[in-house]
Design a protein that fits this description.
399 residues, mainly alpha, 4 domains, two-stranded antiparallel sheet, flat
Length: 399
């Protein structure tokens, strides 16, 4: 009984299975066992399963798409993190071509290193060796152009120099030509001080006389060493030449410095202009060289022009206010006035010459040209054509 009940349960479950033809199965069971099995009705459905409230609700595809960040935004964020605001988009980064710049960086580093090495090895002078550089400085400082004098003083310790040698080389430093006859110079000093010990044994010189002579020689040698030491101190390496800035690379004034310099120069320039605004004109041959033949006065409209030119000259040459630069600007201003108003100056002289009287002319000049009234007696003497021709030639050549 129990076995049949089990089979009935299995058949019932099979009849409820989805996709199974329950009517056909019921017919077969009836043929075999004589039992009637009810086929599954279409309305029969498995019990509806309630959703598990513990699980989070499933997200829709469109919601998932909204939550995924834009790849371009991710890239832009990475760029901002690494480079700040230098690159805002991938395109900006690509245009910068960082890999190519990195490839150029190493050769540039090597060039900088090579240049630093060259600068470190830059010679301090233009001579073949240091001795020649020192010799050149020695000649410039002392006026002694004899290399042997330089070599001797450069190679010895003057303080510990033999007294006789000190006397000899001090004499040669005074007359470098004596370097060719050092033995004779030595004999002269030996005779002068008479310090030959052999004379004591020969009886020609007492010990007391020898000591006195030696004292005299040492005293003079001490003075000679002092002079030689002063000369030796002038043996030194020349100062490296100051590097001139490259053309167009001069340090330029900042706007603040330029404004300050212009303010200072304006005061100086006005003073110089006022001095030059009335220009005395002197001529050769006047009896009183301090008295001008005429005075040229600048027109009022010249002031702004001349002062403007002076300021341009100052700024272009970066001149600070000092005595030397003031002299330079004064010369430039005077030349500017003379060149700009040359015709007016000539006209002033011409007008002055036109109004000068004969009396004034004779009073002002030494040996003025003779007037017809000054013709000496005997002027009626006949003048030949040859004399006239020579006079005309002389006049033409002296024009």
């Amino acid at each position: 009984m129990g076995q049949e009940d089990g089979r009935d349960d299995e058949i019932a479950a099979l009849m409820q299975a989805e996709g199974v033809d329950s009517a056909k199965i019921a017919d077969q069971v009836a043929k075999i066992s004589g039992k009637v099995v009810e086929p599954k009705k279409e309305d029969d459905k498995p019990p509806e399963q309630k959703p598990d409230e513990t699980k989070p609700p499933e997200k829709k595809p469109e919601d998932i798409k909204k939550e995924v960040p834009d790849p371009e935004m991710i890239k832009a964020g990475v760029l901002r993190e690494m480079w700040g605001d230098q690159f805002k988009t991938i395109e900006d980064f690509k245009k910068a071509n960082i890999p190519a710049q990195l490839q150029e960086l190493e050769p540039l580093r090597q060039k900088i290193k090579d240049l630093e090495t060259q600068i470190g090895k830059k010679p301090k002078h233009s001579f073949v060796n240091d001795d020649l550089a020192k010799f050149n400085e020695f000649v410039r400082e002392t006026g002694i152009s004899n290399y042997e004098v330089f070599r001797k003083l450069n190679s010895v310790d003057i303080a510990n120099m033999d007294d006789m040698d000190a006397l000899i080389w001090n004499r040669i430093s005074e007359d470098p030509d004596l370097v060719a006859d050092i033995p004779r110079v030595r004999k002269n000093f030996e005779r002068k001080f008479d310090v030959d010990k052999a004379k004591i044994e020969a009886g020609d010189l007492t010990q007391e006389e020898y000591d006195d002579n030696l004292f005299n020689m040492r005293t003079e040698a001490r003075n000679a060493k002092k002079k030689l030491q002063e000369i030796k101190e002038k043996i030194k390496m020349p100062e490296p030449p100051k590097e001139e800035p490259e053309a167009g690379k001069e340090t330029k004034w900042t706007p603040e410095v330029e404004a300050k310099q212009k303010t200072d120069w304006n005061v100086v320039n006005v003073e110089m202009y006022n001095h030059f605004s009335k220009m005395p004109i002197y001529l050769k041959g006047v009896k009183d060289p301090k008295e001008p033949i005429a005075n040229f006065e600048l027109p009022e409209e010249a002031k702004s022009k001349i002062l403007g030119h002076a300021l341009d000259y100052i700024v272009s040459n970066q001149l600070e206010v000092n005595k030397s630069n003031m002299e330079s600007v004064a010369k430039a201003m005077y030349s500017d006035i003379r060149d700009s108003y040359f015709d007016d100056i000539v006209h002033t002289v011409f007008e002055r010459g036109r109004t000068i009287t004969e009396k004034e002319y004779l009073e002002k000049y030494h040996n003025p040209s003779k007037t017809p009234a000054d013709t000496p007696p005997g002027g009626s003497e006949e003048v030949t054509d040859e004399v006239k021709l020579k006079a005309a030639y002389d006049a033409e050549m002296t024009r």
